[in-house]
Every structure is written in C-alpha cells, then in structure tokens.
C-alpha cells in the first residue's frame, strides 16, 4: 500500500533554497528533494542488511513522569545508527564505482559503518586514520574488513592523504554529508518508530554537528503525523545547530571540543540540506550540560543494561536535566543511537557520574591515634549502611595536635538523601569533618 505524501510541499519548500554543491567526487552531487517515498524505498532496500532495532518501554518512565520508549540503535552490528545511511549510500553506488572501491578518513562511527558494510557488499574499502587513533578502533575497522592506513598526526593530515589516494586510484572518497541518499537511509529510524509505538506525542534525537538523523527522521515522522513533536538535543559546550539555525546557514567558527567522549555531537554542522530540513520540520532544539549526559549514561546502564556513549545518551539527558517539562504525562520516544565508548572512557564516565549523582562521596576527619578509634568510625559507617570504597590514614603530615591521624574516606551511598543522613551522623560525632565538594 502506498501512502500519499501530505507534507511534500513542506519538504520542497525546506530544500528550495539549498545551493548546488561543488562538483567534487562525492555522493553530495546526488542531492534532490527528500520525499517520504525515498525513505520508504531506503527501508525496503536495507531491511536485510541492518537490524530493525526494538523500541521498548523503559523502566525510567516512572522516574521522569512520562511514558518513555527507547529506540535501541546501539544494537546495530557496529553499534551505531550510521549503518542505515551508509548501507543505502553504498548500495546506491554504480557498479563500476563499487568495483573500484571507497575510502574514508576518520575513526568515527561513520567510518566503522563504511568498513563493515563495504566489506559485506564486497566493495574494496580503505580507512585512513591519524597516528593518534586508539588501537582498539584500528583493530575494529580491520576486523570489519577494511584496509586501515595510519598517516599523519591530525585528522586533517588523514583527510588530505585519503583525498590524494582517491584521486590517484579512482576510489570514491566518502564523507558524512547530507546527500538525499544518506538522509533517506537515516530517516528509516523515524519510519520504524512510528510503526513500533502507537500514539506518539514526541520523539527526541541527538543533534549537534551531524544532524542528518534528526533531519531525515523528522521528514518521515512529520509526513506520517504532523502533530508529533520532533526535538533535537545538543551539548551546551558547542551548540552548533542552534547557532547555525539562528544564522540561517551552517557555521564553521565554533569552538568544538575534539575529545573522543563527545564523538559526532561536537562537530561542525556541514550540511545545508540537514539544516534546512531541521529549520522547517523540527519543533525544538535544546542544549544539555556534560553532567547531564554523564548521569544519562549512568541511568541507561543501571535501568536498561545499555552501555552507550555521549551521542547515545544525549537525548535522554534532556529528560534527566528537566529541559522538556511540557512532555510530562506524554508518550515519548528517545533514540539511543550509539554505543561505541572506549573502555578507559567508560570507567572514567561512570565513576564521575556516580559522584555527580551524590552516590560516591569523600570526607576527611581527624581522630585520636589510639586503639579502637578507627573501629568506632567504621561502626558509624556500617550503621549508616555506607559502603567503604577507599580509606587512607595520614600521620606524618597532620597539622593538628600530636598523636592524631587524619582519615580520608571514600564511600558509596544509595542516593542524595542517604548521603545527607551519613553527613549528619558524622558531623554529630566528628564536628570537624570536612566534606569534599564535587
């Protein structure tokens, strides 16, 4: 059954003022009107190559006062929603170009998706990365089937080398742009969510530098039901999408953070197509703090057993931070789009999130260096049901009276209320207790 488009005029208006792209060797030259039929065609073509991920009711619903459904795109083979756009893009290449191969320069989710799906389609694939790339990322791309080339010290060095290799060997240099083909593939997320969750009131997507998922899915959702609110979420540290929408064109002068924690959410919004579609079809874009993202990661790990990165957690962070009070009592879907967090970062993020959530705290106090005084402190901690994570004693450099010991203790508590109870109990017994503020 064919669904006749009701929003085609809106989409056409959104894209009518887009300038023609430059004639470089990329798929951006295929830009055209993004129609609902294009997204439907993409869904049909990629259905055997990507997962139709679940969109499940979350235990977090009661905590935040709304019906929350999580679209678990981090369950894709490479851990990222980018597979949808990449697979449709690769399948749309001419056979001659598929024979010659493709090349990409970065260690992003986009590159890993290209490495996997190009290898599956038997398309020669080359990934150029700077020398500073984490060994785990290099190993992953090789495991997927790509030839990985390490070159230079910066991402710019790798890109220049990739373009040079593409020109010399006839490879197609792929970048994460907002061609109609790529956006149509990403838009299949919106199509699936509409089918999986009836009577949706709102859908929350990650935004930021690469807002193709937001734009493509908005095109699908607004066609199917114009009353569904489509909301984008980006970081307060680099609100590139909000500033680009305000300026009316993609801005490239943002002070973006290149730390791997942020992934694609910290990049520059390159695409005019995505920007125009977002301006016309997206109802709201909000920004959240880094602290909110970390707590969102913690909530997803605890309640959903989902290990995600900043891009995957940023949508839920808007609910954690209370940025969308108008959604109370509504049925809301949140896209958890990526789960590619490096192990050393995962450990740091969870430890920091527990501190921010007032569940790991540290205090110091001075007690007499006499038998039994330490046991009395431990008795108080046991009575208050605090779990001791670390305890240290300092005798040599104590500046208080002689024959005393400074004790620095790190403990785990249940929540903010439990932490306050422990603090009061310690102050009652040890009035000079110093609490380390987070």
From TrEMBL:
GO terms (BP aspect): isoleucine biosynthetic process; L-serine catabolic process; L-threonine catabolic process
SUPFAM superfamilies in the record: Tryptophan synthase beta subunit-like PLP-dependent enzymes (SSF53686)
Keywords: Lyase, Pyridoxal phosphate
Domain of life: Eukaryota
Cofactor list: pyridoxal 5'-phosphate
Pfam families reported for this sequence: PALP (PF00291)
Keyword Lyase set for record: yes
GO MF annotations, alphabetized: L-serine ammonia-lyase activity; threonine deaminase activity
ACT domain span: 362-438
Keyword Lyase: yes
InterPro entries, alphabetized: ACT_dom, ACT_ThrD-II-like, Ser/Thr_Dehydratase, TrpB-like_PALP, TrpB-like_PALP_sf
Protein name from the UniProt record: L-serine deaminase
């Amino acid at each position: 059954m064919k669904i006749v488009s009701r929003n085609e005029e809106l989409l056409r208006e959104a894209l009518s003022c887009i300038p023609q792209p430059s004639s470089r060797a990329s798929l951006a030259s295929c830009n055209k009107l993004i129609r609902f039929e294009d997204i439907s065609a993409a869904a049909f073509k990629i259905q055997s190559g990507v997962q139709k991920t679940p969109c499940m009711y979350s235990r977090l619903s009661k905590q935040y006062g709304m019906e929350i459904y999580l679209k678990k795109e981090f369950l894709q083979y490479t851990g990222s929603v980018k597979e949808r756009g990449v697979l449709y893009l690769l399948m749309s290449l001419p056979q001659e170009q598929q024979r010659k191969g493709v090349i990409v320069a970065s260690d992003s989710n986009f590159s890993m998706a290209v490495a996997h799906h190009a290898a599956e389609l038997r398309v020669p694939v080359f990934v150029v990365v700077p020398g500073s790339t984490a060994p785990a990322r290099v190993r992953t791309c090789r495991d997927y089937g790509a030839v990985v080339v390490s070159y230079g010290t910066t991402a710019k060095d790798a890109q220049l080398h990739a373009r040079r290799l593409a020109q010399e060997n006839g490879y197609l240099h792929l970048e994460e742009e907002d061609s109609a083909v790529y956006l149509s593939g990403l838009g299949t997320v919106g199509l699936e969510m509409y089918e999986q969750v009836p009577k949706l009131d709102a859908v929350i997507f990650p935004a930021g530098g690469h807002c193709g998922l937001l734009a493509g899915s908005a095109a699908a959702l607004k066609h199917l039901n114009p009353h569904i609110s489509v909301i984008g979420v980006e970081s307060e540290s680099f609100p590139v999408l909000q500033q680009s929408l305000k300026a009316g064109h993609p801005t490239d002068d943002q002070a973006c953070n290149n730390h791997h924690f942020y992934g694609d959410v910290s990049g520059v919004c390159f695409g005019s197509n995505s920007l125009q579609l977002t301006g016309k079809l997206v109802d709201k874009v909000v920004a959240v703090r880094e602290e909110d993202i970390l707590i969102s990661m913690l909530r997803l790990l605890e309640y959903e057993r989902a290990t995600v990165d900043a891009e995957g957690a940023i949508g839920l962070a808007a609910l954690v931070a209370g940025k969308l009070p108008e959604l109370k009592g509504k049925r809301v879907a949140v896209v958890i789009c990526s789960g590619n967090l490096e192990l050393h970062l995962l450990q740091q993020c969870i430890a920091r999130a527990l501190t921010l959530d007032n569940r790991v705290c540290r205090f110091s106090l001075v007690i007499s260096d006499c038998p039994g005084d330490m046991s009395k402190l431990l008795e108080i901690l046991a009575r208050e049901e605090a779990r001791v994570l670390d305890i240290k004693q300092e005798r040599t450099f104590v500046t208080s009276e002689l024959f005393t010991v400074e004790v620095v203790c790190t403990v785990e508590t249940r929540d903010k209320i439990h932490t306050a109870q422990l603090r009061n109990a310690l102050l009652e017994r040890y009035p000079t207790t110093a609490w380390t503020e987070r």
